[in-house]
Write a structure and sequence with these properties.
- The strands form four sheets. This protein has a six-stranded mixed beta sheet. Strands 1, 4, 12, 13 and 14 form a five-stranded mixed beta sheet that branches. The protein has a two-stranded antiparallel sheet with strand order 2-3.
- About 25% of the residues lie in helices and about 25% in strands.
- It is α/β, with parallel strands linked by helices.
- The longest helix is centred in the middle third of the chain and has 25 residues.
- About 25% of the residues are buried.
- It is globular and about 105 Å long.
Length: about 350
């Protein structure tokens, strides 16, 4: 007799012998982050590559921006201008994560047709995708958003000293954030010919800026009863004359397996990065950084998620995620890292 048929289940319910172990299919408590919180691709552009490692050209800035035009001597010619060129390399390594599925346990969900979170395959594919996004942000923070990465690094202090590369912390009312970013943008522009267009803010830094009296004073008269003035990323971008401001607010658990959870922001909440970056890869324009991504399986994905069966007799299958990218600083003079902002 088929004990899972509707008639058999109804009979067992009538006898009081049926003890269900069923889960809701339209609700679960899963701490997946909103996709908009992941920030790795919000500052520097992705550059897809065909090979796991190769070189790219770096044309000498001094040669390009020097006036090489001279007065032509009569009956003669000027010396040829020198156009310097260097080679730099990228290298994409493959990272992997795997999670297993017990096919025998999953059979109950298949037979009941349980949708949504109750489906172990769907839940674990979602888990793998979340892991890849999390890992991508962690690599971003290690590659771009920490002290010691960029040559041009400024430190928050109680006093301003341009020579020592210090600025007044954003939590101090004496700080003038608009003037500070104008000055920093001008420094980069004078040195490179490119004005920064991106600003990445740690969470605490963003909170301090949006509540800073100097910022609030500049925007408060633009509000009305129906649309009160608020300070958000778009407003800060307009105020600082930038194309984009991103808040780096993704989180992760720093504790290892079996340890008490230790939740924290992936990117330093007290820091910021000001940079010039292109929207897409280009051969005739610099960018402070690039995310070189390798299509390792030839399917157009640098973070593919795949399923495959386990060994015979184990009645298992696995879901894996792969990640192949090199997050590389490509123009040190096109960015400024600000630490201890608050």
């Amino acid at each position: 007799m088929n004990r899972t048929s509707p008639g058999a289940i109804a009979a067992e319910i009538a006898k009081g012998a049926f003890k269900p172990s069923i889960y809701l299919t339209n609700l679960s408590m899963a701490y997946f982050q909103d996709a908009s919180r992941y920030v790795a691709k919000s500052i520097f552009p992705i550059c897809p590559v065909q090979l796991s490692s190769a070189n790219y050209y770096v044309f000498d800035k001094a040669s390009l921006l020097r006036d090489n035009v001279a007065r032509k001597p009569q009956f003669g010619k000027v010396s040829p201008a020198q156009m310097g060129r260097l080679d730099q390399a990228y290298s994409c390594k493959v990272d992997q994560v795997i999670v297993g599925i017990d096919q025998i346990s999953a059979l109950n969900y298949q037979r009941t047709g349980a949708p949504g979170a109750a489906d172990p395959r769907r839940a674990k594919v979602k888990f793998i995708a979340e892991q890849m996004n999390l890992h991508q942000d962690i690599v971003f923070a290690e590659s771009f958003f920490k002290a010691g990465v960029w040559a041009n690094e400024w430190t928050g202090s109680t006093a301003y000293n341009a020579t020592a590369k210090t600025f007044i912390k954003f939590t101090d009312d004496n700080c003038d954030p608009v003037k500070l970013f104008d000055d920093l943008c001008t420094d980069i522009e004078q040195n490179t010919g490119r004005r920064p267009n991106r600003l990445g803010l740690g969470k605490a830094t963003f909170n301090a800026l949006k509540n800073h009296p100097g910022v609030v004073e500049r925007v408060k008269y633009g509000g009305a009863t129906a649309n009160p003035a608020t300070v958000n990323e778009r407003v800060l971008a307009e105020l600082f004359g930038l194309e984009k401001v991103s808040v780096l607010s993704s989180i992760y658990n720093k504790a290892g397996l079996g340890e008490t959870e230790d939740m924290d922001f992936i990117c330093d909440p007290n820091a910021a990065i000001l940079a010039y970056a292109t929207n897409t890869p280009t051969i005739d324009e610099p960018s402070a950084g690039y995310i070189f991504t390798w299509d390792m399986l030839g399917d157009g994905q640098y973070m593919p998620v795949l399923q495959y069966p386990g060994e015979n007799g184990t009645h298992t299958e696995f879901v894996e995620g792969l990640f192949a990218a090199d997050m590389k600083k490509t123009a040190d003079d096109l960015a400024i890292f600000l630490k201890d902002c608050v």
